[in-house]
Amino acid sequence: MRHILLLIFIGCSFTLKADHITGGEMYYTLRSSSGGMNTYHVTLKQFRSCFTPNRNFYNPIYIGIFNRVTGERIRDEQVPLSREEEQSGTSDDPCITRPPLICFYVGYWEFDVTLPVSADGYLLTSQVTNRVDGITNLDPGYGRIGATYTAEIPGSRPLTAAPANSSARFTGSDLITICAENSFNYSFAAEDADGDELRYFFSEAYQTVGYSGGGPGGPGGGGGGQQSQPVVEPPYYPLPYGSGFSGSSPLGNQVTINPATGMVSGIAPGVGIYVVTVCVQEIRNGVAIATQRKDLQLSITGCTIAAASLLPEYMLCGNTQRLTVTNQSNSPLIASWSWEFSNSAGNVVYRTSGQTADYTFPAPGTYDVKLVTNRGMQCPDSTVSKALVYPGFDPRFSSAGACISKPVLFRDETTTAFGTVNFWDWDFGDGGTQTDFSQLQHPTYAYPSTGPKSVRLITHNSVGCKDTLVQTVTILDKPPILLAFRDTLICPPDPLQLRANGLGTFTWSPAVNMTGANTATPNVNVTTDTKYYVDLDYDGCLNRDSVTIRAVDQVTLGLPADTVICLGDAISLRPASDGLLYSWTPAASLNNASVKNPLATPTGNTRYVVTASISNCTATDDINVNTVPYPQANAGPDTVICFETFATLHATTDGSSYTWSPLQPQTLTPTVHPEATTQYIFTATDTRGCPKPVRDTVLVTVLPKVQASAGRDTAVVLGQPLQLNASGGLQYTWSPAGGLSNPFIANPLITFSSPTRAIRYRVLVQDEAGCMDSAFINVKVYNTLPQVFVPTAFTPNGDGTNDLLRPIGAGIQEIRYFSVYNRWGQLVFTSSKNGLGWDGRINGAPQTNGVYVWQVMAVDYLGQDFFLTGTATLIR
């Protein structure tokens, strides 16, 4: 690929509302070392957007110095702003569409600090109150979130010479653009003056909890450049990432970082602002001595790049040999595609010129996937990727041990059908440290805290397959013991089996009258009340619980008095008993015949018998449940009535009393006059023993008032077909019916053969219930050719007569425009509606007497154009 990608980490095509700090980092250089004291030159670097006015960097800013292990505050430094630089520009690459403007400021704070050599080392911290708004890869429910930037000075505990250290320093360019859903490469490479080995990884960005900021001049305010406040001591907490994102995957699962080079590459996510933190770990003589962090908000814009863009490799290492691949760039400048798949011998096995390549490889192996775009055209490009076709790669691992502060053994169980498994990168998910990783095949790790740990394994094989597996391991302070019961009864001399469940070795005590004391399920035979203890040992984690057994010589059992319920209702049977097992009869009407409190739904008068038992001790009792039918209640059928009419309801019941709601007085056949659709509730009760009322509902639907319409009055010429148009109902009857094509439809046709000043038609409209209304239309018939009549004068005085200058069409199908002009040729009115006219006003102001010119353009009923012009006099 020949196009240079520009990564914008300061948003410029987004509206950043109130805050503007978009990233930061801190690094240092060892100036001198003498007498157990080291002097470091420290640089804090922060970025802010050009597009948030009235915002400044803190001046001065607080930088806190803490013990790296204990978090104890050593001291605070107030550091003035050393300098500020502006960087801006727009890509001029013709193959990038919609390139955004890049603009940001970089602030530098520099100072020297002298510190005694410490076993634990030091943590340098700077904080701001708020990041930019609207960060895409964070949980939106958290609102604005602060930022914490750190640097680590190592102590002598991991390595005696470690404090004599200059930190790793990121060297990658900050002027770069990422186009959404396009491939990109961005180097987070760092250099280390001490020659330490560097290891790169994504990490959680830190938020700021409890930091008050610096008032209106700080990142939380605007203007003035006032000082910040002392920073909050560690520990620092990760940001709340949103769905699909995490600290180790801040740009989604298609973007990775090379742990050896710091190169971030892949396919960018959609348009938005993304917080990304890259850590570089300094490793000296195999010991990790310090970790430096760079925290940025990357703005990914909607630009596109006319490029041949593929993933670095396509791994068919699962259970398929089929590859379907498209160009990652969706630039509109791309007009042609040419694909070639070649095997390891260089022979082409597949070609296509479509936008998508779809091929099933015939045999395992490593293949080249080549894409050429815009061959012989503007913005040509090409790229080659690898297809690793080695199905049968299955990453797996297991763990043994789950006790806090004791080693947990992780065992890689990855299998592969091709090559050998040769790479392991473990992250043990311990958020309290940056040393929870290993590249051993079967590592161990001792967790200092309890809870669920998200363990990640990245594994490779020798033919290039890679995969990532994440599993949760729960670390315990003591292993859980699940007991089947903690307190139970027994009727001697019956035996009893104790039951426990858990991981580890069980030991029960006292072992008196017990067999299997070293199992999870021992058997006991007691004659007196006894308490047994169970101990569980799981890889050195210990826990204890107990079971109490009470010995009895009889079962207590008592049922309440006989009862009456409504037929069809359910009743809970509740005996007073200390029994452990229960058996009810008859079982047919019970939901469960073997529980203490079954739910009974008898179909008639029923006698229920229960037997309660404790081992061989039993007791029996019974209860009669009598049933009484509900009264019948029928509110009658639903009905439909016309607007403002009456309805009579018809209810029936065998109950002793009844009521209507909302109605008075109470009768089985009330007459109602609802204004709108209404539900009437009929309630019946009786005195036969079922105390519950029965309700039924009748719906009276009130149809809306029929709004009959016959259309607007009109005028036609002889021989012109006129179609009447009525509305408002389902049935129509026109009168007079003479000459109508069908007087019983909404839109009959009529053609007049003789002129008349006016004929009045009446239409009777009915709805689905037979409710009626009527309307009228007046029709004038002229013995002329199609014509538009416009008065020669009008008097807009508001008396209702001749107030408008308007066109009246006869034989006219459509008026395209009717326009009125004053004597200076100014357009004062225009309309395309027949009958709509000018009221003699311009912008609400009455016009003086005078002559006005009008023009009308229309189409007659035969489809011919009609144009007419004339004058009219305005008279007041």
Provide the number of structural domains.
8
Tertiary shape? flat
Percent helix among the residues? under 10%
Rounded to an integer, what's the Rg over CA atoms? Answer: 45 Å
**Proportion of beta-strand residues:** over 45%
What is the distance, rounded to the nearest whole angstrom, between the alpha carbons of the first and last residues?
81 Å
Instruction: Please tell me the overall pLDDT.
Output: 88
Low-pLDDT runs of 5+ residues are 1-18, 214-226
Q: Strand tally, please?
A: 73
> SS-based structural class?
mainly beta
Sheet with the most strands, sense and barrel status: 8 strands, mixed
Tally of separate helices: 0
Account of the 3D structure:
Residues 327-374, 424-475 form the PKD domain. It is a single chain. The protein has 876 residues and is mainly β. It has 8 domains: 21-301, no CATH class; 306-389, Immunoglobulins (Immunoglobulin-like, Sandwich); 397-475, Sandwich (Immunoglobulin-like), CATH 2.60.40; 482-551, Sandwich (Immunoglobulin-like); 557-628, Immunoglobulin-like, CATH 2.60.40.10; 633-702, Immunoglobulin-like (Sandwich), CATH 2.60.40; 714-782, Immunoglobulins (Immunoglobulin-like); 788-874, Immunoglobulin-like. Helix content is 0%, strand content 48%. It is built from no helices and 73 strands. Strands 1, 2, 5, 7, 11, 14, 17 and 18 form an 8-stranded mixed sheet that branches. A 5-stranded mixed sheet has the order 20-26-25-22-23, with no helix packed on it. Strand 3 (61-67) and strand 4 (73-79) form a beta hairpin. It is flat, with a radius of gyration of 45 Å.
